[in-house]
Amino acid sequence: MTSPADEILDIVDENDQVVRQAPRGExxxxxxxxxxxxxxxxxxxxxxxxxxxxxxxxxxxxHYDMFVGGVxxxxxxxxxxxxxxxxxxxxxxxxxKPQFLFKFLYDNGAGHSWWSAVYEVRCELxxxxxxxxxxxxxxxxxxEVERRLGEWQWVPDGLxxxxxxKAFRSAG
Length: 172
Fold this sequence. Notes:
Helices cover about 25% and strands about 35% of the residues. It is an alpha+beta fold. A hairpin with a 5-residue loop joins strand 1 (about 10) and strand 2. The relative contact order is 0.21.
């Protein structure tokens, strides 16, 4: 099995056009703009899937996230990556196709940015997240997630996507 750092990514410009390809480790180390997907997964009761990342993750180890997702592989579409990542991270097969909501350019202010496509999906299947990716998980009511925003250490890009998703929904 290859290391996640060796996964080949499309490197994109400020307009989300592919300019070249590079291994994930190089993209992270050099701050090369790439593509990511964020999928909000809710159960049949409308609760949000929330998890804490394992301490061995390349970025934001042991942080909480209210999205599943990850990088878009070279030559992969956002839609393909959204379904693949949701099924991988939730540990399920047969999810409905995640619904695309919007896309934004995330910039952490320290030279790292990525195009981020935000999706939502209903997961009524029993989840079994990958132990190497997820240290803890649960489906939490939205009010509980809101309450935990100031208490838990969240991945910064997921938190940015969460706030943009709230604004998107309130505007629509």
